[in-house]
Predict the structure.
Amino acid sequence: MRKIQLKYATSATLCFIAAAIIVLAGIRAWVTGEPHATAGADLFQKKGCTQCHFTDSRETKVGPGLKGLFNREKLPESGRPVTGENVRRQLIDPYENMPVFKDKLTKAQQNAIIDYLETL
Amino acid sequence: MHPSQGGMMFTPLSRIVLYPLIVILPAVLVTAFGAETHGFVSELGRNAALAAVMIIVLQGILAARLKWITHPFGLDIVLRFHKYMAMAAAVLLLLHPVLLAAGSGNLGLLISLDLPWYIWLGKITLLLVLVNVGVSWYQRNLHLKFEKWRCLHDILGPVIIVCAFVHSITVGHDLRHPFMQGLWIVFFVTAVLVFVWHRIIRPRQLRQNLWEVNDVQQETDDVWTVKLEPPEEKKVFQYLPGQFQFITFFRGRDLPVEEHHWTISSSPAEKNFVTSTIKALGDFTATIKETRPGDKAAVHAPFGRFSYTLHPEEKDLVFLAGGIGITPLMSMLRHMRDVQADHSVVLLYGNPDTDQAVFHQEIKEIEAGGHPDLKVVDVLSDPNENWDGESGYIDREKIIRHCGEDLSGKTFYVCGPPPLIAAVMSALNELAVSPRQIRVEIFSFLD
């Protein structure tokens, strides 16, 4: 009897956790507006980032190539850990010669670009 | 109220509900306060990791034999839940990188070797979790001895917790919020402290209050009863007939010092000692015959919910026992005898022959005494030629023959080796006995 109760309790617990994980992911994606890597790619083009950065290599154009950026341990130039927040920081308060995008990109647009960079 | 109940503020049901709520708490907070979003699939991957890490944090707490958790359910059930949730954590952690890679379209996370150290640490954590879960699930198939498995488990558990903490706090963008960082640290410090308490501090406390072996009685060729007396000026703990205890023997003479759990075979009516009746089944128990009066032992008890005293309304009982599985039932029979209980009990007791039937003589004496109203049926698989009783194994026909066709008002207590339990459960199922009428004790936590 206790083993049957255990099976019910375990099944209910697992179902609840799985449902919560899915619903919470959905809520978060919906509330904050689902960012799209494709939108990020468009922005990357439109905002002129491609003038200075390769996206298909690590070679330096004007700034460093961004291929595999999120697979690296540190951001080029600044040497900060590769995290979404540090990439955002580079956009709004650049480490060196990069233009400042603080007033040129909304938070959602920053997210989209970060998403795009994660795909490189 | 029993002091171990820990108050009635949380009913057993609320304690069950509390578990998944704690598991999803970080995902809820991240949803509410998280700074970034990376699309549904990536969020799914992140939530899977947050839930898995919380399950890992809670694993040590489930296994720490905390009375507040074990009392309502029984330690055996809590440890089985611990085992199932370990598998759930492994699945969630396997999904984590796959979903993140799918969400970002960056397969490098899965296949690239050029990754930051903290990503590698996450992969190592996943590998350790898979090893820990795999070894625990397949311990018997791997022929890994219990003590070696336990040693490995005690090492891998804390290592996994530390690796998971460092990986998550380093790479988890959402954990950069000071509140989340504080919460994360609280969770992990709690997990570490509970582990240290369970595996280091409490064992030391138990060793400061050692019990003494008073007598070692040989019951059959390979079964011994060890009688233990509490330290001076201490009393025997309160326990229920059918419960079990953890014992660590300190015998010297180069005999192993390992903690094992055994059923208490004595009656709680005996206030001066407890006994465990132990069969030589493995490397450690093969040394039990070397135990001598005067040897010391650390005792941690009582545990378990396999006791007729928890169901006072049930008076018509059937005990189905095989071999050494008689021990918890013997504790109950002795207790019924000592308190002059008016229960009706049919005992079907399976053994190869009567010489190997532990407590055979004393059970017959209890039967003759009238309390409880006991009917003993020996079922022998290898009887001598003069045997005219039941032979073979406990089965459907024997249950009907000795308990009657109408089993509706009876409660069945089953204890014995796994094949006996499987056969008896199958027979009871065929006889349409409700699971509510069946209580089973399984010795191994890993089965």
User: Anything to note?
Assistant: The radius of gyration of chain B is 25 Å.
